Amino acid sequence: MQPEQKSEIINSNMASVAMDSLNMESGYSQVNGLKMYYEIYGQGKPLVLIHGGGSTIQSNFEKVIPLLAKNRKVIAVELQAHGRTNDRNTDLTFEQDADDIATLLKNLNMDSTDFFGFSNGGTTALQIAIRHPEIVNKIILGPALAKRNGVPEQFWEFMKQARLENMPPQLKEAYHKVSSVPTGLQVMHDKDAKRMVDFKDIPDEQIKSIKASTLIIIGDKDIITPEHAIEMYRQIPDSELAIIPGGHGEYIGEITTLKPDSKESDFVIPLIEKFLNKKKG
């Protein structure tokens, strides 16, 4: 890393804080016009966590970070206009999110890493594997949308009429916990909705070009259809598919589907660790 690249790293009270007996480092990095927020937990091979639309690190991954960080260095990010990362005068795109994460990892002097993307984060992980294959070891898609027909038709009608008042209250609360920007929640909501309305299919040839070992995880009552996950599984050469009982993100304790009686054993961490530790054939 060049000295000027190092200077792009803005440390924000890098003092360690405890989270479920873990040490956590947090900071900001100058990334393509953003001050991009990230958190780092644990030691070991790096695993990058990519949140979904309308979410923060904690609203998607708070329950599983302590489990994953027992054996891994976990790098969790917040993307443009989400959580503690500021906005810029551009629409959200999965391609730009992929480029932003690639730049962040370069700033942090990290080379080949594993990625776990949840929901929209899964689509971003797909774009990282397509656009930046040199930095990808393995990817986990939990799940990912690659085609408009991967969700029921009424999903698109809902997105066209999306209103902030209909956003899950848990996600609103999670945003306000970490951001004090008065208009930020509305901006995040509107840009996320527009991105989905404008979503275009990822071409088959790009999906088939993915060389990284891939694990696709989907709930049997997910937003994305099991048929779509199966199609992606057939297209990505080195891929595995797990269909888990439950709703969208229930298998990782995502905040809107988390049940009061959920336990560590309900989450799919052993499945993820087995996949990440498996040697390539």
TrEMBL record:
<dbReference type="InterPro" id="IPR029058">
    <property type="entry name" value="AB_hydrolase_fold"/>
</dbReference>
<feature type="domain" description="AB hydrolase-1">
    <location>
        <begin position="45"/>
        <end position="144"/>
    </location>
</feature>
<dbReference type="Pfam" id="PF00561">
    <property type="entry name" value="Abhydrolase_1"/>
</dbReference>
<keyword id="KW-0378">Hydrolase</keyword>
<dbReference type="InterPro" id="IPR000073">
    <property type="entry name" value="AB_hydrolase_1"/>
</dbReference>
<protein>
    <submittedName>
        <fullName>Alpha/beta hydrolase</fullName>
    </submittedName>
</protein>
<dbReference type="GO" id="GO:0017171">
    <property type="term" value="F:serine hydrolase activity"/>
</dbReference>
